[in-house]
Amino acid sequence: MQKIHNGAAIIITNNSCSKFFIQRKDDTYPLKECRGCISLFGGACDDDEDSETTIARELAEELVLDNIKITPKLWRNFRLHGNQFANTYEITVFTCFLTDEVFEELAKQIVRPQVVLEGLGEIVTREQLCKWSKDTSKFFASLDVVIDEFLQQH
């Protein structure tokens, strides 16, 4: 039987869901075919972790923000077959809604070095995500499915 991998990710948006903070895999990402792909902050669960522990660890590993608290709220689970992977995986997706004021502060901070420690942080509009979600090759590990579902519901 094929092992199913588990992970956790977070959608970070403003309250009106008009802007999103995403991660883009950069040139240092080990899998060349994933470089440049749109992703969410998060990652794989370690063997002894639940999804809440994983997302807290991943946020601490990937982001260093001053006076901005990213508070994950459980949204839903997905079973996906990653675009770049041979395996099926389950991902627990969290959300974090920020006020416009806090989101603007986030946008100011991510341009500084050593704020986003893995990949590139990028602020994108809802319209950009809607357009990109039509091209699954732009997304890391089939996260287009997650983002498309979120956009439909919010």
TrEMBL record:
Stretches assigned to the Nudix hydrolase domain: 3-146
Question: Which PROSITE patterns does this UniProt record tie to the protein?
Answer: NUDIX
Domain of life according to the entry: Bacteria
* Bilayer-crossing regions: none
This protein is called what? Nudix hydrolase domain-containing protein
Please report the organism this UniProt entry assigns to the protein. Answer: Uabimicrobium amorphum
Q: What is the lineage of its organism?
A: Bacteria, Pseudomonadati, Planctomycetota, Candidatus Uabimicrobiia, Candidatus Uabimicrobiales
